[in-house]
Design a protein that fits this description.
This protein is of the alpha+beta class and 186 residues long. The protein has helices at 7-108, 134-146; strands at residues 113-121, 124-131, 150-160, 169-177. A hairpin with a 2-residue loop joins β1 (113-121) and β2 (124-131).
Length: 186
């Protein structure tokens, strides 16, 4: 048995193992490259799909921004129209205000009080007149306070005059008009 040489057989087995190892190494490398390429393709598809979604979202966002701009413009127009309507309502109320004041004055002015001028500016009325007695002016103040739509009556001046044949005291009075709602004047 000493004549049997096992070295070539071992060399051949080693070569076979080397070839098998190299084959497995190449196979593993190829499989790794294939898997990496497949993952890379999948990732790129996902990125492309997400970019398409982002583009779609950007388009929708810009469309909604335009619509919001239109809504803001419509709200501004609505506010302007409401402002105009309020202006028309206030003009409508003011138009009837002087008639209402002159209809109410005979009820407010007691006998013995004579008005010489009525001056109306915005929400304030100034009366200038003469009276036989101070108590009648006080009665007029109470009636103004009780009217419900006239307020803050105050006498700015009152003084006796030396007119003949009857001595009348002159007075000047201010009072304010309470802003009425559109339904209250109708």
């Amino acid at each position: 048995m000493s004549n049997i040489n096992l070295l070539p057989w071992r060399d051949m087995a080693r070569d076979r193992q080397k070839k098998h190892f190299l084959f497995l190494l190449v196979l593993a490398s190829v499989l790794t490259v294939v898997v990496i390429l497949a993952i890379n393709i999948w990732v790129h598809r996902q990125v492309a799909r997400q970019q398409e979604r982002n583009r779609l979202l950007q388009v929708e966002i810009s469309r909604l921004d335009r619509e919001l701009g239109e809504i803001a413009r419509l709200k501004e127009q609505k506010a302007q129209l409401l402002e105009r309507v309020q202006l028309f309502d206030s003009v409508q109320q003011r138009r009837n205000l002087s008639v209402r004041v002159f209809n109410q004055l005979p009820e407010l002015v007691p006998p013995g009080v004579y008005l010489s001028s009525v001056d109306m500016t915005r929400h304030q009325i100034e009366l200038v007149g003469k009276t036989e007695a101070y108590g009648r002016v006080a009665r007029m103040i109470r009636q103004i306070e009780g009217s419900g739509w006239l307020t803050e009556p105050r006498i700015s001046a009152i003084f006796a005059s030396d007119t003949q044949p009857v001595a009348l005291s002159q007075f000047s009075m201010l009072f304010r008009i309470i802003e009425a709602t559109p339904d209250a004047t109708r």
